[in-house]
Amino acid sequence: GAGVSQSPRYKVAKRGQDVALRCDPISGHVSLFWYQQALGQGPEFLTYFQNEAQLDKSGLPSDRFFAERPEGSVSTLKIQRTQQEDSAVYLCASSSDPWPYNEQFFGPGTRLTVL
Amino acid sequence: DQQVKQNSPSLSVQEGRISILNCDYTNSMFDYFLWYKKYPAEGPTFLISISSIKDKNEDGRFTVFLNKSAKHLSLHIVPSQPGDSAVYFCAASYTGNQFYFGTGTSLTVIP
Q1: Phi and psi (nearest 5°) for A86?
Q2: Mind listing the pLDDT tens digit for each residue in B47-80?
Q3: Residue A4 · residue A74 · CB < 8 Å
Q4: Cβ–Cβ below 8 Å for A4 and B43
């Protein structure tokens, strides 16, 4: 398929474990976004990349959260020492060029449950 | 602090009738607004958008209205179809990249 893919789709972690969530954007898409969606809430912005450059990380809730996109395509969101409040669906989105207000195409998300 | 609010968590409408989904925002700097549609186990998909220089944008059965003085936007679906049953999120931005989402309204269209 040509859409945004995310893996794993489901992840269960024990409190204190580190997790890594992967996003494969649509091929050629320059911009990549990560969102956190808690149960019953809308998606909340975490961070934004333009190619390999992380231009905005103002939404990352703590220094336990880290995102990278080293080659400007695949991105990984890493959460260290997971806490129960990190349980949420993590959504990745990509858009075709760096201009503002472009449509963002979302992946299906990774549902993280921290026990 | 929730800058974009959808105060109706759910809405049921008969097939063929109009669905009206509402959204309120607090930040007067927002200049671009979108509606997304989400089916279970899928990511949100873009539906329609509007710039703050307009008060109406129409795309087929979907129309978005923006009332800047009231800081309110609405999505009208006419006529509603069973396939429209989904969760609808409104979102707003003033940077073009960081979008603020509402909590969603679950629409059920009854055949």
Answers
A1: -80, -10
A2: 999 999 999 999 999 999 999 999 999 999 999 9
A3: no
A4: yes
Task: Indicate left, alpha or beta for A2 from its phi (over 0: left) and psi (-120 to 50: alpha).
Answer: alpha
* CA-based nearest distance B8→chain A, Å: 12
Tokens representing A42 are 């809308």
Contact (Cβ atoms closer than 8 angstroms) between residue A57 and residue A68: no
CA distance A47 to A58: 7
pLDDT, tens digit, 9 for 90 and up, residues B92-109: 998 777 889 999 999 999
Set of chain A residues whose Cβ sits within 8 Å of the Cβ of B6: 42
Nearest CA in chain B to A56: B98
B44 — phi, psi (to 5°)?
-60, 145
Of A35, A42, A56, which has the smallest distance from its Cβ to B97's Cβ?
A56
> Considering CB atoms only, which of A42, A45, A108 is closest to B43?
A108
